[in-house]
Write a structure and sequence with these properties.
alpha/beta, five-stranded antiparallel beta sheet, five-stranded parallel beta sheet, 37% helix, 18 helices, single chain
């Protein structure tokens, strides 16, 4: 099939599609893409990374994964999650990139299908935002889990966004129009369980057989999020395991049973499998919850996302023009370890916005616990020897100038700085 024939075929498809050559240049787009992009000028002849991201370089040279490069290497369709610029702002999209081959099996172009993930927009500021590969891999798993009713166990350190992930799974699934409820397991006592889950008799004696509904009634058809499920007592672990096994329950003070239709999502900051091995968590309950495990990456394992999230929080905490980060402050944020993860970064930025008086956030405004111990600034950076452009230790320019001299993006520079801090001997 020729490019012209393929282009004609794409015009009839309802999802956004574009056709481009092996040099990233767009050959054709369909009406759905034009509506999605809403560009005031033609995108034909422009590169895909320029139109979708505003980049000057391909995605893999700008700190993100590139499906075109992956497809060139594999010769197969590649799937990635990207953040695109749209008229409504930045939004996550699921991309399927399929190579086009000639009669000699050489790749001569690509067809890209775009599926916008609108749900992420409805989450709180800074939640489920990122561009790093660990974050994108997590989002790919979430996209798979959201299409099913399978029980999901979300594990991750404190502050990694487990609540936001649970909300995303609910809002992205077929139960999105039904209720979503969260149970904070550590605060739930044995005596509270019966009332919370199954309801209780109404104190109003004038209403015969009246009873207050339990959560299994109010959330029926929706999603129940068991937050910090490792905090359940042994008794409650047994009660929840029995409920998940039978999907049948009875109201307080009655013998009539009802069948429940609820999707279960659970989270834990502890490693539940280790809890099982230590005899602290029921094995049968663990396997019922762990049908689709998702581990959230710590913020220190996704350093490319730190400047990205910082800008989101700066805008969130500013009524007017957000303050800017000095190069030293940016470097300090990039190399800090964040034991509290995203929640801690958000608190650091909020505090810095209050302490900053002149529109520029400096390291002293951040008040990071380990800044005095490290004593590192942008001026004493040594670029690893694998760089084509080794610089002297005392670079005097800005982060942007340093990236330009190295021939890399600022995001890639951030990764290099983080690796250098982890292994100063390189």
């Amino acid at each position: 099939m020729s490019f012209s024939q393929l282009s004609a075929f794409l015009q009839s498809l309802t999802e956004p599609h574009l056709l481009f050559d092996a040099e990233y240049r767009i050959i054709s787009v369909n009406p759905a893409f034009r509506k999605y992009c809403n560009s005031q000028s033609s995108v034909i002849g422009k590169t895909c990374y320029e139109v979708s991201h505003g980049y000057d370089l391909p995605c893999d040279r700008s700190g993100e994964s590139c499906p075109l490069k992956k497809s060139l290497e594999s010769g197969k369709t590649e799937h990635v999650l990207h953040m695109h610029n749209t008229p409504e702002g930045e939004e996550y999209v699921s991309i399927a990139l399929t190579p086009i081959k000639n009669s000699q099996a050489d790749i001569i172009g690509f067809v890209e299908k775009i599926n916008p993930l609108k749900t992420v927009r409805r989450l709180p500021s800074g939640q489920l935002k990122g561009i790093s590969e660990p974050f994108q891999e997590m989002m790919r798993l979430l996209d798979k889990a959201a299409s099913s009713d399978i029980a999901v166990l979300i594990e991750g350190e404190t502050g990694t966004g487990k609540n936001a992930v649970a909300q995303y799974l609910h809002q992205s699934g077929k139960r999105c129009a039904a209720p979503f409820a969260t149970v904070d397991c550590p605060s739930l006592t044995d005596s509270q369980f019966e009332t919370l889950f199954f309801g209780q008799k109404s104190p109003d004696r004038t209403a015969r057989n009246a009873k207050a509904k339990g959560i299994l009634d109010t959330v029926n058809g929706g999603t129940l999020f068991l937050n910090n499920v490792s905090g359940l007592s042994p008794y409650l672990q047994a009660r929840v395991a029995s409920l998940l096994e039978t999907n049948i329950y009875s109201h307080a003070d009655t013998i009539n049973t009802q069948k429940t239709d609820i999707r279960i999502i659970a989270s834990s900051s502890d490693h539940l499998q280790k809890q099982v091995e230590q005899g602290l968590f029921r094995e049968d309950l663990y396997y019922r919850l762990n049908r689709f495990p998702i581990t959230l990456p710590a913020l220190r394992d996704r350093p490319e996302d730190i400047p990205f999230l910082s800008q989101i929080f700066l805008k969130h905490f500013s009524n007017d023009v957000p303050p800017t980060l000095s190069d030293e402050a940016s470097y300090a944020l990039q190399t800090y370890t964040y034991p509290g993860n995203i929640r801690e970064l958000k608190a650091i930025i909020e505090r810095a916005c209050l302490l900053c008086d002149d529109g520029t956030i400096k390291p002293e405004h951040l008040r990071l616990p380990d800044m005095a111990e490290t004593g590192q600034t942008l001026e004493n950076i040594l670029i690893p020897p694998d760089s084509d452009n080794q610089l002297l230790a005392h670079f005097k320019g800005s982060r942007k100038n340093l990236a330009e001299q190295l021939g890399i993006s600022e995001r890639t520079l951030y990764r290099k700085l983080a690796k250098l801090k982890e292994n100063p001997s390189v």
